[in-house]
Amino acid sequence: MIKMKHKAKRLFATVLGLLMALSLLSTTAFAADSSASITVNMSGITTVPQEELEQIQVTPYLVLDQVNDTETDATKKQYEVTQAFKLFFDHQDKSAPEEGFTSGLDTIFKTVAAESKVYLTYNETEKKLVASASVPENSETKYIEVSGGALDQTYPEAELLSRIQENGAKSILYSWIEKYIKAANVPEATPATKDNNGTNITISGLNEGYYALLFANAPDGVSVIQGILIPTKSPEGAEIDLKAEQLPLNKQVINAQHGEAFDDSPAYTGNKETSGDIGDTLTYQILTKVPTLADSENLTAFVLSDAMENQQLTDTMTLTLTKDGNKAEFTAPLPANPDEPTYFAKPGDNASKIAKLTVYAYGQDSDGVKKQKFKVDFLPMTTGDPSVVEDAITDPLTNYQGYDVKLIYSAELTTDAVQVNDNDVTLDYTNNGDDSQQTDHTEVYTYGIDVQKTFSDGNTSAENYNAVTFSLYTDEAYRVTEGTKTPMNLYGSAGSYTTDGTTQAQTVLNLSTAGKLTITGLDDGTYWLVENTTADGYTVSQPIQIVLAADTDNKAQLDDDGTSAMINGTGKDLATVDSQANTSISLAKFDVLNQKGFNLPQTGGAGTWMFTIGGILLVAAAGVLFALSRKKDGSK
């Protein structure tokens, strides 16, 4: 019995020792699994606020898994494709040898000599790579050129990736993998932790292998430049430096009649506002930049959209790209019909097209404001017109990486213009599957005057109001010393006029039935309001100097403390007509008073000669009496 107990103890000790050995063995054998990590370093990004960097998300997807996890010699590590990516590489499951694992890829590589080339494309419908011994017929098709020769029969995918060395080819492959991940709903790798501290994102708890990293929530205005497949290492892990560039977007507006000029600095904060008469032509400049991408294939959209309130496009648009002294200029005429695209091409060379211009009809938008909208899409794109694709510059976003973009165009201020006419530009682009959007804003202002006619005796009869007429002059026209002063042409009736319109132009302005005269659509500047006629029995008012100068802090408004809207050198009250902000006009409001005068007979009227002769006789009699009195005094 005692011997049996001793044997049992020895057996237990042996088993325990074996278990401990196995546990140590397993710890050693699988030390590499779940101990790898990837660190995305963002410390080099200085153009983006820290709080925005903290919103960036990185998702890892295990493409190739290391088979021999204990191997530390990089030259001896072996990798096989994960189940999730077998379809992408078009290799059948090697766990079922009866089905075989050869594929179209494998067959092509076997039949093409090592010194020859194999051409890879991606079939988005079937979600897999396609190999061919010849260059794809469609020149617009993206393809990767790699060396031929049979692939490793155990780990063909790993060997295939090892043959893709060129950076451009790696970028194309990455874009295909990204599309596949999204289309096939590939599950992300399951790391133990993701630590995002703003300048670094560390993903730990990973198996050793090759990972595709997908980025999300990139801040607006940031173009992410990322790597392709990231091999992890244990225990120190792998590190990738994430680079980004802040794309500028700057919109400026000038009224050339003011002597204003553009500034080509993307950081310039001026020229965001100007003013104008209705009918004035305003000039706009938009500055931005084509991203510099190692992975330009993932820049799938780059679109400038613009919306101008109460303005219509005129003339030709110019698109200029500049970098390191190299300059390329493209122009686009306005399309004959709205919504029909036209193209930016090099002057005199219609075959060199770089972007599509779509101009939409001027009309009322969903917010009730009349707008002119247009957008500029960088080619290539699906146009439905094969000749456009053939004539277009192949992949301009790649060819013009890092180029500064300048778009210049003109627009006329329409009769719909109001106090504040907004203009918004939007830059939309998609990079690595992440949509980014930036906006910038300018404003164009118009002003006006609001006159109330009054009479000194308080008479408000229609007869009095109907007798009054005015004319408005620019300062330059009023100060003419030789010849005739020419009043402004205005449009409207019944006391309401503007500086442009479809009605017949008028220089003589009437009052409304309430004795009002409102003139809108005026630029800032100096004007003279001249009363031509008034009612019988009243004196015509003196010409009135009107100075309209916007508030320095808020150019949308005339200064309400009287320092900028001046009537004969005196500040006047201001009024805003119509309570709706999108239809209001900032007006200088003042009264024009007519004093009661003497009602004398008209020259040449009945009885005038009698008064004239009587006056002469009285003067003569007075002279005779004065002379006689002097003579009498002298004789004394």
General description of the model:
The protein is an alpha+beta fold and 636 residues long. The chain has three domains: 28-244, no CATH class; 247-418, Sandwich (Immunoglobulin-like), CATH 2.60.40; 447-594, Immunoglobulin-like (Sandwich). Helix content is 18%, strand content 38%. It has eleven helices and 38 strands. The strands form eight sheets. Strands 15, 17, 20, 21, 22, 23, 25 and 26 form an eight-stranded mixed β-sheet that branches. A six-stranded mixed β-sheet has the order 29-30-32-27-38-37, with no helix packed on it. The protein is elongated. It starts with a helix and ends with a helix. Mean pLDDT is 77; it is low at 1-32, 96-102, 381-390, 578-583 and 599-610.
Largest sheet: 8 strands, mixed
What spatial form do the alpha-carbon principal axes imply?
elongated
Q: Return the domain count.
A: 3
Q: Roughly how much helix do the residues carry, as a percent range?
A: 10-25%
Strand proportion, as a percent range, falls in 35-45%
Question: What class do helices, strands and sheet pairing give?
Answer: alpha+beta
**Unreliable segments of 5+ consecutive residues:** 1-32, 96-102, 381-390, 578-583, 599-610
Mean pLDDT: 77
- Using only C-alpha atoms, the radius of gyration works out to 42 Å
Number of helices: 11
Between the first and last Cα atoms, what is the distance in angstroms? Answer: 188 Å
Number of strands: 38
